[in-house]
Design a protein that fits this description.
Oligomer: single chain
CATH architecture of the largest domain: Up-down Bundle
Largest sheet: 8 strands, mixed
Strand content: 5-15%
Order of helices and strands: HHHHHHEEEEEEEEHHHHH
Number of domains: 3
CATH topology of the largest domain: Butyryl-CoA Dehydrogenase, subunit A, domain 3
CATH superfamily of the largest domain: Butyryl-CoA Dehydrogenase, subunit A, domain 3
Distance between the termini: 39 Å
Structural class: alpha+beta
Shape: globular
Radius of gyration: 21 Å
Length: 399
């Protein structure tokens, strides 16, 4: 059954699962998303233009740092609330959806691993929308395998020198600071800086500001999907990063990255659940209109039933993963399952929607073809679904 009110069907009778405050965040997100004119949504995609103004408006509504405490300017919400917001933004294809998800993902390592000075400098400005953050990990020859990165860092006394290239970085062309992973050369670090048993080069996290000498924006990408997110390359050419911008301890970069990405995958699952719901909404509206015009659609009822189950199963896995995060029990395997189920569901739903609606499904104002293009990207970024399946298998093989 297609939901007819603000709350997803699976949550209507689950007061123990969704609190009144979480419902309010969902309602707020839906109001924000539905208030954006469809013409603006289409234009951001067609022109591949990042809507900084819309991002700042979202931050003023409390979405920019929803799961972080008010101590640092956050909204004091939980991760399930943030997933409810992301589902609504995905359903409506809000132009800043992915950038907002990455923005929160970048605040996570600062909040969890940063010094008090780093927290005070970056988190309140991120919450207000003054700062936009991006995550620098993917490289031309290193995507899902975080251990394969080649960006290097060398200690030079009061600062570090970074060299390398990140690619396909969401918000990269518009961000004010970046969480960047680099391999710190043992030759440039004292023995006590590196963990025992480390290799010659060890992955380390840094906060890199846009104005640091030696940093520049490289190629900008005009892609099939996920457009309007200022996706680009980041180039580090002896980029001078002050020593105080070392995030956590030397050698902890992989831990910093993986702990953040696990939550990021749950965010993607929420966005993809929204895509799937948006495609299902379009199918149901089309079939109702066909019935009203005397074209029976009963033969497709079974398909709508199957598709509805896909959406709800994605939603349950996603909220289960989000609830685990809120309990302090973040589960990498559960996050991987949620990402796979939701992005695969979005791809299936949008494919079926295009087929059922025919040429009408290609009309930009219905958002179906936009969801189709974005869903394919969702199966790829922040760890391909193939890699996620390997992670799940490895978990069960190790038991």
């Amino acid at each position: 059954m297609l939901r007819t009110d603000i709350l997803p069907e699976v949550l209507k009778d689950s007061s123990c699962f969704v609190s009144q405050l979480q419902r309010l965040w969902l309602e707020k997100a839906r109001s924000f998303a539905d208030a954006i004119p469809i013409a603006e949504i289409i234009a951001a995609d067609a022109e591949n233009k990042f809507r900084r103004d819309l991002f700042e408006r979202a931050c003023k509504e409390g979405f920019g740092a929803l799961p972080f405490p008010s101590t640092y300017g956050g909204s004091g919400g939980d991760y399930l609330s943030f997933c409810l917001v992301n589902e609504e933004f995905g359903r409506r294809c809000v132009p800043i959806m992915s950038s907002l998800g990455v923005h929160v993902l970048c605040q996570e390592p600062v909040f969890r691993f940063g010094s008090e000075e780093q927290k005070q400098k970056y988190l309140p400005r991120s919450a207000s929308g003054e700062y936009l953050a991006a995550f620098g990990l993917t490289e031309p020859n290193a995507g899902s395998d975080t251990a394969a990165i080649s960006t290097s860092a060398v200690s030079a006394g009061s600062h570090f020198l970074l060299n390398g290239t990140n690619t396909f970085i969401t918000s990269g062309g518009a961000a004010d600071y970046y969480i960047v992973m680099a391999k710190l050369s043992a030759a440039g670090a004292s023995a006590q800086d590196l963990p025992r048993g480390s290799s010659e080069k060890t992955i380390t996290a840094f906060v890199v500001e846009r104005e640091f000498p030696g940093f520049e924006i490289g190629q900008k990408f005009d892609m099939l999907g996920m457009r309007g997110y200022a996706t680009c390359e980041l180039v580090f050419n002896d980029c001078r990063v002050p020593a105080e911008n070392l995030l956590a301890q030397a050698g902890m970069g992989r831990k910093v990255a993986l702990s953040s990405l696990a939550k990021g995958r749950v965010t993607i699952a929420a966005q993809a659940t929204g895509w799937a719901q948006g495609a299902l909404d379009a199918i149901v509206v089309h079939l109702r209109e066909a019935e009203a015009n005397g074209c029976p659609s009963g033969a497709l009822a079974y398909l709508v039933g199957d598709l509805s189950m896909l959406v709800e199963s994605a939603r349950v896995l996603t909220y289960q993963a989000a609830s685990a995060i809120d309990r302090g029990e973040s589960d990498v395997t559960l996050a991987a399952m949620a990402k796979i189920q939701a992005t695969d569901a979005a791809m299936r739903l949008s494919t079926e929607a295009v087929s059922i609606l025919g040429s009408r499904g290609l009309a930009s104002n219905l958002l179906v073809e936009r969801i189709f293009r974005d869903a394919k990207a969702g199966q790829i970024y922040e760890g391909t679904n193939q890699i996620q399946r390997m992670l799940i298998a490895r978990r069960y093989q190790s038991k």
